[in-house]
């Protein structure tokens, strides 16, 4: 099976999460994995399984990620593939579930999904320009790493289990 893990990132937090998911799925030895940022060269048609992720800016996936989703929509409705998605943002702990629902609703407008989750990301002071840094701080923003690696591992393990249920020929390691 050919697995695509594609991501849209601005400062690297989403890429690190995609890499963590790739490592977890690769350890299960269930297929050939390609990990890549979203661009015009990627095609959902070239893969059997899709895991798609993007950082969130202003309650929306970033442009390259949205373009891939919209470009792939017709093909994925005509020829559905096992597809999961993850979003990366920095809502307060109490805001994760509502923001996840907003993102999932948007994604399901375009593509059939087996599942979606929202992971919290990381904000590093050195990634922000002076004006944004000031604006962010004035409104109570904190530069912090809120990635919960165990949740990413559990999510990736769930994907592996679903694929093994669908394809009994994939033996457990």
TrEMBL record:
It holds the Pfam family Flavodoxin_5. InterPro entries: Flavodoxin_dom, Flavoprotein-like_sf, Protoporphyrinogen_IX_DH. One of its GO terms (biological process) is heme biosynthetic process. Residues 4-126 form the Flavodoxin domain. SUPFAM superfamilies: Flavoproteins. GO terms for molecular function: FMN binding; menaquinone-dependent protoporphyrinogen oxidase activity. CDD domains: PTS_IIB. This is Flavodoxin domain-containing protein.
